[in-house]
Design goal:
- The chain is mainly alpha-helical and 234 residues long.
- It has one domain: 3 helical TM bundles of succinate and fumarate reductases, CATH 1.20.1300.
- It is built from 8 helices and 2 strands; from the N terminus they run αααααββααα.
- Bound molecules: protoporphyrin IX containing FE (HEM).
Length: 234
Amino acid sequence: MSSSGILKSSIAKKYAMALTGLFLCLFLVGHLLGNLQLFIPGEEGQTAFNEYALFMTTFPAVKVLSYLTYASVLFHLVDGVVLTMQNHKARPVRYAVEKGSANSGWSSRNMAVLGTIVLVFIVTHMQNFWWKMHFSDMPTQVVDGVALKDLHTVVLDYFNPAVNSMAAAAVALYVLGMAALGFHLWHGFASGFQSLGVRHETYTRWIEMVGKAFAVVVPLAFASIPLYLFMTQG
Ligand code: HEM
């Protein structure tokens, strides 16, 4: 491919990377709002969460969003690996004057490593809950004569030290995964808008501020769930 062809294809890749990344940010907001129901105590919380899980796995429009989420995770991952390899090929030796923080932030220089930690988190996380919900035997909760899959008990037990001897390790993995997610978003959120060509004297400053707030608040809120369940049970 000519050098302008390579440039064009890597611009297209950055565009796709940005679109999938920003879509996944929307997914995170929805997923967080659903998961915050885990703070509701007692049977009320159990019913609310299990009815929500039933809706999320059966309502057709939500199922389409789920497939879009899986496709975005895969695309973002493959595209990220290819772009990292292309960047490395284009500049195998670091600039002599490159002094890390002098040219770019720590997060932006470590997007691939941070993304890999987030990926390990997602794979383990899906195996724990998503796989159980879709493909294995589940406990049930009977509500108004209807047996609901009891995902609420599965999640609570997973982070309960009296039930799961690995609960502390599970909480540690969640906290580490959320720290990596936070740093990944710290650079990724605003960078996504920049790759889409959204650049403006005033808006860019706002996008950067919102991105940084998002990168702190969303992972902290996610991490608070396993920490709370670990500390209040057992
Ligand atoms: C720490 C708090 C979290 C809890 C308690 C939690 C809980 C769950 C549960 C119970 C499911 C299964 C739902 C189902 O299959 O219907 C699920 C699915 C999923 N989670 Fe999480 N999650 C958390 C954080 C995250 C984070 C931070 C990410 C991404 C970085 C993530 C990515 C996913 C994905 C991609 C799915 C599959 C979604 C789908 O099938 O549509 N989760 N989560």
